[in-house]
User: Fold this.
Amino acid sequence: MNISFFTLGCKLNYAETSTLREQFEKAGHSIVEFGEPTDAVIINTCTVTENADAECRKIIRRTLRTSPNAFVGVTGCYAQLQPEEIASIEGVDAVFGSKEKFSIPQLFKEFHKLETPQIHVSDLEEVEFVESSSSDNDSRNRAFLKLQDGCNYNCSFCTIPLARGGSRSMKFTDIMPRINGLIKAGFREIVLSGINLGDYTAPTSEKFIDVLRLINSCSPEARFRISSIEPNLLTPEIIDLVASSDVIVPHFHIPLQSGSPDILKKMRRRYKAGYYSSLITEIRSKIPDCCIGVDIIVGFPGETDTHFEETFNFLYELPISYLHVFTYSERENTPAAEYMPKVLPVVRKERTNRLRVLSAKKKNEFYRSQIGTVHTIIPEFYYHETKLWIAWTENYVRVEFSAPPSLLQVPMSIRLEEIQGEVMAGTLLENQQTVTQNTPEYYSILF
Ligand code: SF4
Assistant:
């Protein structure tokens, strides 16, 4: 049968949809692009998405417009948390929880519209780890590899532990074969991903630092990026390893969520603001060009103007490179949803905007500090309209540069020249192998 997929939410969801896709192919189904006529669609949802319900309805309507008889299955975090609500949406045939997500081809051999929607959602005790990886936005050289899933923490605003269950990790011995498979498929940058990646603990007890040491010692033909890591799990050993590694790139994304000690406590985060700032100072002193990204939530219940100013000033002083700013919104079944007083929506918006402006300033400062420096890029996309290539440096600077469209997508050295809007302009260094496709040099590399 023909099956199409639609994914909402985080990179991990995209990686998992890729796994679902492979499972359906193995079961003999054909995958069609979302929007094409299909016999069934599987929607992989997210609970963090604002208006997940409205999004779901929209996708279902779009599917049924082209394929009125298509079977509609909904899975993912939102499906785990609100199965009845989803089953009541017109057009839905089945809802699959996080545990059932990877058993859909076994649960249904054929996909036909049902009179009454079926709910296949069980509780999340002892849910197993399922391997997943996917390319980043169809990039041919950047992939996400899920090493860890779920979370044992209990941050008061977060539904992820409820939606995905407890922390579990890929077997240690499976890591290098999986990485080698991605490298063989042509990926040259692998983003190590997880819900709480720093909490990686293999069934045989290895920790995240052991994963990094393993990757580092194997000298694979790819570079590795740590997607995001909780500050309390970012140890001096990890920082030292990244500082000395040729394959693990100098980029950390470290959720802070608030710079106010009171709010951090109410959020049930596992570190203090003082610890966080010394962590950033340590990284900056050991890896001066490191890119440091920070997640922040504004408008958490009880966040007064004074708390917000504390956060703003804290971030203003920190030598960080960019912020991801999230506006707090109540999530059912979380302790924070009951906390009072609520912050007015208009105030939440104002605070979000102020931090977004601060983020642009931080990014500009970071980019400015990189002018004249030389970095490694892997050419990612060529834009015919602008006749420019775009790529990421190892320290996460978005760079555009001029080169023939046939340029081979292998690591190259580039000098960062100037800031141009949201990106930096760079020049490929001379005297390096800027091999283009379909030339004798190209074939000598391939064979
Ligand atoms: S660490 Fe906190 S915010 Fe992150 S997934 Fe776990 S509970 Fe949610």
Q: What stands out?
A: The longest helix spans residues 345-369. The first strand starts at residue 2 and ends at 7. The chain has 14 helices and 21 strands.
